[in-house]
């Protein structure tokens, strides 16, 4: 039943809210799940109070379209968690509240240097080399239980590390624990980004840091910085000694130095690229492998496609995976069911506006629930089943045109890294499927028992890491 205050003010419908808390307590089992239940009860545009803030959630392609249109009509500002407001936002890409000139410059730098067709082609050998190392380690671990998330995560960090700093930062062997360094810093940043912060929901705490989340976030950023600080210094010194004779640009650090970035700017951008680009990609690969282990037919179909298109070679090249429609369909199906970012980053609307004939008051936060749309029976047949065939031969894509499928977001703030992410996911998944048979520990024969529950976070992951045993196919 809709709250009366919503009706009175012509707000999008939504549940009654508790005094002071609003509906915060109901979010604990997973905001995307709770918000999806609300959409089923109140319709595709609904509103909910969290603390003192009003959130308006769109959960259908029509609602998402209308929300995106409202950003063109009235000024809006990206909501940035208080823990991320560290005074460096003017240097930020992900946490820029406005699409400023600086934000535009950062985006086009990344688009042109890292994510353009030419940039991606130049990086291909780095991805291939790192995936090859991962496969070799798995061969060595044959017959033993492997935490696939940790391994794939380490590999994605090392690929990006080589692209940015010509260096891999993480040991691939996850059995060796690292007490400091980039891995710990990135895990901490993810955990901190997921911890509910009362300062985000009550203006009374504005300017304070009651849970010390801001301080801890800054510490984790500094921990990352300490990992590459000396590389930046050495490279600056080399450029200084070079006195304009011109060294070849070997990585993204050289590009940033050429563009006159300060150390702070380099750190902010690279930490954002690492935090935005590693867990998300690793989580997608982990989900995809879990789905394929569970759905043997799909696994066999990928193998047939690999055999037909590239033969029995075990060392796959990136150029070979660009034309594998069934593999691509499996990745899309994974992103439909398990989008790493289930709720698109909220934007605050700075003036009252109308959306779908409802009034949306000034300062409301607008969210698009991608997870709900991916599982909506009105949009997908048999939505909870993993059926890559639905994308096979279909034109539905993740490039922000099909509003029912938005794993990489939509509009100006859409993920700039998606071409990079997709290349990496295709190559890693093809290599894991081509090289190994996979089984579950404890002789678990009944694959339907594989736990597929998920954790909500800044990046949504499997609740339990996928533990699997590789067996070489060669
Ligand atoms: C499966 C992998 C990935 C997924 C699902 C994903 C998804 C997303 C989503 C949903 C957004 C927000 C879009 C919006 O608010 O409308 C985003 C933003 C962003 N992503 Fe990704 N991403 C992935 C991989 C990457 C990679 C590999 C990188 C870079 C190496 C990256 C860098 C970024 C950046 C910098 C932004 C902020 C853009 C801005 O605010 O202007 N992402 N991503």
TrEMBL record:
InterPro entries named among the record's database cross-references: Cyt_P450 (IPR001128), Cyt_P450_CS (IPR017972), Cyt_P450_E_grp-I (IPR002401), Cyt_P450_sf (IPR036396)
Names of the cofactor(s): heme
Single GO term (MF): iron ion binding
Entries under Pfam families matching the protein: p450 (PF00067)
Binding residues annotated for heme, in chain numbering: 415
Alphabetized UniProt keyword annotations: Heme, Iron, Metal-binding, Monooxygenase, Oxidoreductase, Signal
Domain of life of the source: Eukaryota
Family as reported in the entry's similarity comment: Belongs to the cytochrome P450 family.
Protein's recorded name: Cytochrome P450
Organism encoding this protein: Artemisia annua
